[in-house]
């Protein structure tokens, strides 16, 4: 067999797709520039590593299951002047995860809580962290389904295996007893193992109404807020402002 066919077979067996794709062009280039063999290998090895990191990052983002692609770069901090942008940018460095700290975004609808939670989650994926996004209802349902299939342990293992879990929209809908218990178990599983970002429209004092049990909520808050960054966002709904602005612009265009 010809040596290049053999080589290509070996590169496939060794799972080195970037080598395979680029070795001919790199060989030509290194030849023209009189580079040493080591240099040739180094260039290819670097491309392989870069391609792997890129793939792993894309996989982490996919597996996290974010509903939208919100980023910090398209968050308008001037729209929420009371929000300390430096604090958010510091959190994007993910140091809170090393200390298993949590983040709670509290504020009325439309102020950007979900946007920031997703953006921090995506940034964590880029920094090599395993992340999972749920809505509070979705999490309670996923837990209940796992339980029904006697897979609760596996589900809990999956949660513990994440560096960060985002729980969006806690408090919008009162939870039934089963859902409350599942969420309580979830927060117990995460305690001191997995960081959690929660977004909620309710101050902590109103959480018992959502969970329907004062003592359980107390225990849950105790765990969640043991090490926590509470970020209150107040202001008018960006969503509402945005749609009013669009309507106004549309109106002008039509005039
Ligand atoms: P909340 O979760 O607080 O109800 P969202 O994060 O879902 O609000 O925000 C509603 C919409 O407005 C989203 O499309 C979001 O991207 C956008 N949005 C909110 N605040 C900002 C902001 N400061 N800059 C840019 N977009 C924003
Ligand atoms: Mg939201």
Write a structural description.
- The structure is a single chain.
- The chain has 255 residues and is α/β, with parallel strands linked by helices.
- Helices cover 58% and strands 12% of the residues.
- It is built from twelve helices and five strands.
- It has helices at 3-13, 17-32, 37-64, 85-91, 95-98, 113-126, 136-148, 152-160, 177-190, 207-211, 214-224, 238-254, and strands at 102-107, 131-135, 164-170, 195-200, 228-233.
- It has a five-stranded parallel sheet with strand order 2-3-4-1-5.
- Strand 3, helix 9 and strand 4 form a beta-alpha-beta unit.
- It is globular and about 75 Å long.
- The relative contact order is 0.12.
List the helices and strands and how they pair.
Blueprint lengths: L2 H11 L3 H16 L4 H28 L20 H7 L3 H4 L3 E6 L5 H14 L4 E5 H13 L3 H9 L3 E7 L6 H14 L4 E6 L6 H5 L2 H11 L3 E6 L4 H17 L1
Parallel strand pairs: 1-4, 1-5, 2-3, 3-4
Helix pairs in contact: 2-3, 3-6, 7-8, 7-9, 9-11
Bound molecules: adenosine-5'-diphosphate and magnesium ion.
Strand percentage: 5-15%
Helicity, in percent?
55-70%
DSSP E strands, number: 5
Structural class based on helices, strands and sheet pairing: alpha/beta
Radius of gyration: 24 Å
Cofactors, ions, other ligands:
adenosine-5'-diphosphate, magnesium ion
């Amino acid at each position: 067999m010809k040596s290049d066919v053999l080589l290509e077979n070996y590169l496939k067996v060794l799972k080195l797709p970037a080598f395979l794709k680029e070795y001919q062009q790199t060989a030509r280039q290194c030849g023209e520039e009189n580079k040493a063999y080591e240099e040739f290998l180094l260039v290819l090895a670097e491309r392989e590593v870069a391609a792997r990191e890129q793939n792993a990052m894309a996989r982490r983002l996919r597996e996290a299951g974010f509903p939208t692609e919100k980023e910090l770069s398209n968050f308008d901090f001037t729209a929420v002047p009371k929000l300390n942008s430096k604090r958010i940018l510091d959190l994007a460095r993910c140091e809170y995860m090393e200390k298993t700290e949590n983040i709670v975004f509290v504020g009325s609808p439309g102020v950007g809580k979900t946007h920031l939670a997703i953006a921090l989650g995506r940034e964590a994926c880029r920094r090599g962290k395993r992340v999972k996004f749920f809505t509070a209802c979705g999490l309670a349902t996923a837990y209940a389904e796992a339980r029904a299939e006697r897979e609760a342990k596996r589900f809990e293992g999956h949660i513990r295996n994440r560096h960060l879990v985002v729980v969006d929209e806690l408090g919008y809908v009162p939870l039934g007893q089963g859902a409350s218990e599942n969420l309580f178990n979830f927060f117990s599983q995460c305690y001191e193992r997995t960081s959690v970002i929660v977004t909620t429209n309710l101050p902590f004092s109103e959480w018992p109404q959502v969970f329907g049990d004062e003592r359980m909520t107390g225990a849950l808050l105790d765990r969640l807020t043991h090490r926590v960054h509470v970020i209150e966002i107040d202001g008018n709904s960006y969503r509402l402002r945005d749609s009013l602005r669009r309507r106004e612009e549309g109106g002008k265009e039509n005039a």
